[in-house]
Amino acid sequence: MFTNPSDPPGVPQYALKGRVVTMDAAYSVLDTGSVYIDAGKIMAVNPTGTPPPSGYEHVPIIQTGGTIYPGLIELHNHLSYNALQLWQVPKHYTNRSQWSGTPEYRKLISGPMEVLGRTPGYVEAIVRYVECKCLFSGVTTSQGIALFSNQGISRYYRGIVRNVEQTQDADLPEALSHLADVEAVDSTKFLARLQRCTCLLLHLSEGTDEQARSHFTALHLPDDTWAITAALAGIHSLALTPQDFQTLQEHGGAMVWSPLSNLLLYGKTADIKAARENGVRIGIGADWSPSGSKNLLGELKAARLHSVANGNLFTDRELLSMATRTAAEILQWDKVLGSIEPGKYADLLVVTSDKSDPYAALLQARETDITLVIIDGVPRFGATDLMMHFGPGTENWQVGQAACSLNLGGEASDPAIENLSLRDASDRLRDGLQQLPKLARDLEHLVVRALPEAQAPQWFLRLDEPYLEGITLRPFLDQGMAGLEAVRDRLKAVASVPLSQVLVPLDLDPLSVADDETFFDRLLKQNNLPDYIKQDLLALY
Questions:
Q1: Which helix (H) or strand (E) holds 141?
Q2: Has residue 325 got a pLDDT over 60?
Q3: Distance separating alpha carbons of residues 390 and 383, to the nearest angstrom
Q4: Which phi and psi (to 5°) does residue 59 adopt?
Q5: pLDDT at position 324, please?
Q6: CA-CA distance, 214 to 309, in Å (whole number)?
Q7: Cα–Cα–Cα angle for 53, 335, 33, nearest 5°?
Q8: C-alpha to C-alpha distance for 275 and 269, rounded to whole angstroms
Q9: Phi, psi of 257 (to 5 degrees)
Q10: Distance from C-alpha of 199 to C-alpha of 177, rounded to nearest angstrom
């Protein structure tokens, strides 16, 4: 039907028919309705039985046989690490400094990605692979993948899945997720930066002890004001007390919840009941595959299980809102995303389910139940029988026993990635992870030289961990520059041993739980994870 679905301007008008969960202000649900799409935008949302909007009388109406939702918006994920399998967390921790930068962490997490991220041919494979991992779980927006070049250029990869840090769209203001050193250690400069941005996604109080909490209390300034505005979204916020959450809410701040990651590392998660009772806006993110959910769909399941185990803290609708409506509000994107309404961008997700409750239908869905993912009106992933309505796509795939198709063409940049199939990316990463010691040795004997400006730059991953010189993900207002430099010195000391002597061959993390035969075995062996997660999460798959 569609001759060129990989080129967004060429996608014609069409409509999707099914149950429609709008996530609008009234939380309207159409038992059967049609969503009319034109040039990447939603033009109308009509209940079945009403006439189509003027000018759309003859558009093709595609029977989805499922429930249509807004695309999922993830506010926290270190995507560059998502080729790695779930880490067997060795002990109980009380703050992140106790595990980040340890020899085992370097051996299994930071070291492997440092090597692959600096070896030619692997950067594009990582980007392709982890972006498809997002698509397989219905994620249409996540955090970006940062790149740097041997010409000293930094930018975010721009591909299929939207990234919150670089949008090139005035209606999608770009979020900030890093601070310059001077902003991280000086409260006046920190507040000035916060006041200049629309959203600052900042790792905050990750841990359970007073050292972790001090990152929040340091936001209390000498003049008795707080360096908190509506732009601040504290990732984790694990050590905050009920009074802290009240302070956060009074100043308009939000939080981003990553429950499974918190439970895996620290044996507990944020006092989410206190956050809710104080009216704090809450988004959600899977954190990363090494110590979190494989994807956002899995993280929503973990959040639901934690809610139920602690007295049904949230309704299913409230949980879904964390990844749709509320997430868009935190980003200040709610003008054009987060719900299914006329005039908004067509970022959509279709799920098949026999659940009568429209919200439980998504939260209890498996990856094999996702039948269509649309970004900016362009179908990108879905069941083959639905995707065939939009053209041949670029690649066939199988998720569990479900036959699926991908449409990965049409990126406006990064041509090396545009021409790379998911299958080739998977093969390349699988081989690279098995050859980590050799690749590390090769890098140790390689000198990367700056190229003349006329030549194309060579791109590498700019990893979030370990700490980069000049920028950081976290405030250090409580410790100042001395504290920040102490962290860097500790990481440098661990890094004094060449990676070729540290790394071991690793297996590639499968794209979905449906295709991961060892996922639950590894989950059940986690020492810090409560039984209600271990046992009940298995039942949901």
A1: strand 139-142
A2: yes
A3: 12
A4: -75, 150
A5: 98
A6: 29
A7: 35
A8: 12
A9: -100, 130
A10: 8
How many whole angstroms separate alpha carbon 322 and alpha carbon 329? 10
pTM, two decimal places: 0.94
What CA–CA distance (Å, rounded) separates 124 from 146?
12
Tokens of 273: 């009941």
Distance CA 120, CA 124 (A): 9
Q: How confident is the model at residue 477 (pLDDT cuts 50, 70, 90)?
A: confident
Residue 152, pLDDT score:
65
pLDDT bin (cut points 50, 70, 90) of residue 126 is: very high
The burial of 520, by beta-carbon neighbours within 10 Å (0-12 exposed, 13-18 middle, 19 or more buried), is given as middle
For residues 326 and 282, is the Cβ–Cβ distance under 8 A? yes
DSSP string of 244-287, one letter each residue: HHHHHHHTT-EEEE-HHHHHHHHS----HHHHHHTT-EEEE--B
Q: What is the 3-state secondary structure (H, E, C) of 500-540?
A: HHCCCCCCCCCCCHHHCCCHHHHHHCCCCCCHHHHHHHHHH
**What residues pair up with 95 in beta bridges, in sequence order?**
207
Query: DSSP of 54-74, one letter per residue?
Result: TT-TTS-EEEEEEEEEEPEE-
* Residue 298 in tokens: 């899995």
Which element (helix H / strand E) includes 125? helix 123-135
Other CB atoms closer than 10 Å to residue 245's CB: what's the count? 26
- Strands 154-156, 146-149: pairing is antiparallel
